[in-house]
Amino acid sequence: MNLPCILIPAIVGILCGILGYLIGKMGSKPDSNALSVNIEAELESYKAKLKNCQADLKEQNGYFAELSKAYELNLATSTFPFNADLAASVFGKPVILDDLKIVEGIGPKIEELFNAAGIKTWKALSTSSVDQLQQILDAGGDRFAVHDPSTWAKQSELAYQGKWEELKKWQDELDGGKVE
Predict the structure, then answer these.
(1) Are residues 41 and 117 in the same domain?
(2) What is the torsion angle, in degrees rounded to the nearest 10, for the CA atoms of residue 91, residue 126, residue 96 and residue 172?
(3) How many domains does the chain have?
(4) Alpha-carbon distance 107 to 103, whole Å?
(5) How many CA atoms lie within 13 A of 160 on its CB side?
(6) β-bridge mates for residue 127, sequence order
(7) Three-state secondary structure call for residue 178
(8) CA geometry: angle at 107 spanning 101 and 108, to 5°?
(9) Domain range for residue 40?
C-alpha cells in the first residue's frame, strides 16, 4: 500500500472540514433571541438600579428637610451673647442691647414706630421683611415713607449676632442706611 495515496486524501478531508466549519461560522447570524434576552436582562438591571437611586434620593430629601427644620428651629431659638464692651470699642460709644438706633437709617422716631408695631429687638427686626418694614413706615406718614429699609434687617442681624466689626465696616459704606 502506498502511504501518500492514503495520507493525501486524509489531509485534504481534514482541511476541507476545517474550512467548511470556518465558512459556516462566518456566514451565520448571531442568535437574535439570545441577544434580546440579554438586552432585556440588562434593562431590568438598570430599572432596579434606578429604583434604588430614587429611593436613596427620597431618603436624602427627607434627611435634608429634617436638617432644614432643625436649622430653622435652632436659629429661631438660639441667642447670641451681647458683649457691650466689644460693641462700644467698635462704635466708640456705649451700645445698649436691642437699641434699634444702632441700625444706620433708624432714628428715635422710627424706633418708636417699630416698637409700636411689635418690633422691639434686633432679632425681631432681622426677621422682618423689607415689605413689612416699609408698610410700618408708610403707616407712620409721608415723613417716614421716604426711608429705605432694604438694609435694616441685615444690619440688625449683624448686631444680634454680635458681628460688630462687620456691621461697622458695612455702615461706613452706607449712606443713611442705603447702599450708595
Answers:
(1) no
(2) 10
(3) 2
(4) 8
(5) 20
(6) none
(7) strand
(8) 90
(9) 30-78
